């Protein structure tokens, strides 16, 4: 489904150039439930952002269903992302002055769907994430765990081929953590391909494949 071949990525800070990813090879198949682990600063978010076509890389090839994403223009990449990728970033990036319903509906505004269909899809997600009673509440009034659920809702409402999630349990208590992880389990059982970046073993234990990122290199996957 999605393949990375010999991916390299460096960041330049002032005069120093630092390699973050060095010759990354990875293959994501349909239905995969993957955890990418590694210490803080090891490049996990960078790798996930590359998978989600949010940032460019320096060298290598990325292939999606036999098409080279590398060769797409900026606009084509954004179109690709809208159509295929659901992304829950580490900072959520929700619209704080809008309510829960509007935030989850957002990705559907870019699709040519009928009003009734949009309402139906958003309501389905609200129900799935237990957010019905919050739908009129603005984001700024929600707790971290509630915002996390809205961010997941926004990422899945368009039924993406791949769901990418960056550190989903960072600031959650054990019970909220479990309810978020149960949602991923459910989405996975419904056929969604999921890649989660985390340093939490409670997350990686639920996944079928675990990768480790260290010194810019990605380990061979451990498959459960
Ligand atoms: N836009 C940027 N410009 C310069 N350096 C960057 C940029 N983004 C990331 N880096 C550097 O790249 C390295 C990897 O960052 P990254 O955010 O991918 O780590 P991470 O594994 O996600 O860490 P964490 O677990 O803390 O979220 C870090 O040293 C970081 O400072
Ligand atoms: Mg990170």
TrEMBL record:
Family: Belongs to the ABC transporter superfamily.
Matches recorded under PANTHER family: ALPHA-D-RIBOSE 1-METHYLPHOSPHONATE 5-TRIPHOSPHATE SYNTHASE SUBUNIT PHNL, LIPOPROTEIN-RELEASING SYSTEM ATP-BINDING PROTEIN LOLD
Span of domain ABC transporter: 2-223
Regions that span the bilayer: none
UniProt keyword annotation of Cell division present: no
PROSITE patterns associated with the record: ABC_TRANSPORTER_1, ABC_TRANSPORTER_2
Species whose genome carries this gene: Anaerosacchariphilus polymeriproducens
Record-given protein name: ABC transporter ATP-binding protein
GO MF term set: ATP binding; ATP hydrolysis activity; transmembrane transporter activity
Alphabetical keyword list: ATP-binding, Nucleotide-binding, Transport
One GO cellular component, as annotated: membrane protein complex
CDD domains: ABC_MJ0796_LolCDE_FtsE (cd03255)
Lineage: Bacteria, Bacillati, Bacillota, Clostridia, Lachnospirales
């Amino acid at each position: 489904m999605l393949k990375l071949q010999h991916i390299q990525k460096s960041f330049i800070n002032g005069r120093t150039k630092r390699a973050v990813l060095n010759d990354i090879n990875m293959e994501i198949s349909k239905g995969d439930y993957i955890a990418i682990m590694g210490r803080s600063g090891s490049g996990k978010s960078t790798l996930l952002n590359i998978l989600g076509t949010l940032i460019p890389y320096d060298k290598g090839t990325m292939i999606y269903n036999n098409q080279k994403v590398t060769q797409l223009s900026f606009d084509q990449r954004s179109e690709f992302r809208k159509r295929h990728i659901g992304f829950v970033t580490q900072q959520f990036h929700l619209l704080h002055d809008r309510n829960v319903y509007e935030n989850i509906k957002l990705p559907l505004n870019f699709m040519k769907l009928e009003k009734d269909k949009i309402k139906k899809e958003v309501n389905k997600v609200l129900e799935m994430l237990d957010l019905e009673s919050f739908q009129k509440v603005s984001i700024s009034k929600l707790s971290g765990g509630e915002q996390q659920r809205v961010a997941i809702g926004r990422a899945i409402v368009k039924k993406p081929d791949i769901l990418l999630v960056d550190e989903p349990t960072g600031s959650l208590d054990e019970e909220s953590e479990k309810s978020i992880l149960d949602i991923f389990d459910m989405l996975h059982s419904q056929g969604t391909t999921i890649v989660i970046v985390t340093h939490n073993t409670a997350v990686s234990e639920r996944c079928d494949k675990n990768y480790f990122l260290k010194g810019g290199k990605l380990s061979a996957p451990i498959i459960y």
